[in-house]
Design goal:
It is a single chain. The chain is of the alpha/beta class and 242 residues long. The chain has a single domain, classed as Rossmann fold, CATH 3.40.50. The chain contains 11 helices and 8 strands. Helix 6 links the parallel strand 5 and strand 6. Helix 5 packs across helix 6. The radius of gyration is 16 Å and the shape is globular. It starts with a strand and ends with a helix.
Amino acid sequence: MTKTVDSWHSQRLGRTVDVARWGDVGVPVLVFPTAGGDAQEIERFHLVDACGALIEAGRIKLYSCDSVNGRALLTKEGDSLHRSWMLRQFVEFVGNELVPAIRSDCNSDDIEIITSGSSIGAFNALAVLCRYPTAFRQAICMSGTYRLERFMDGPVDEQFAWASPMHVLGSLDEDHLEALRHRSVVLASGEGADEDIGESWHAAHVLGAAGVPNRVDSWGPQWAHDWPLWREMLPRYLGDVV
């Protein structure tokens, strides 16, 4: 399959970000890495191969980018207010830089993107859907971690609330919420080692209270918080919607 890697310096983030793409045609699918992952993490852990049949059939193109905000959390970059700022800047980077780049690559000014990710990648997938519902049509969130206060080690501010899908829904205007109510969210989780399906149920409650369509899928106690689960999940869910 065709693979390309691009990069540019983002003034929002104050650093260079890599963006990878696999495939030539099909529905664009933006997959966020796990917390500290880079744009090619999903290839190294064979998630791209797991979606290979869909890519080769021209049903999807996969995109991924460096997890800049996740890396800031993982490495405890700066203080909690800086990390809150990084969460917001990354979501804005996706909406204002990466989405236009994906649409340009697809030769469409308004094509809708499916987004996905695992762990903190699931947080990012849900965050960009909530903030940019006219750009993203669905979020496939796998083994998600949605309450990130425990990574902050200090106070958070309005930047954190702006980026966090668990906090932002109450502040959105009615037009924004109405657009979001025409989108959908899958909250999939195992219940084995290091999984916490309670995170998915909490997210479902918050989304449901705002009228956002969603469902929680349990994959059972045989699945741990690891790549074998996500390699099973993503192609199955994508195969249902593309």
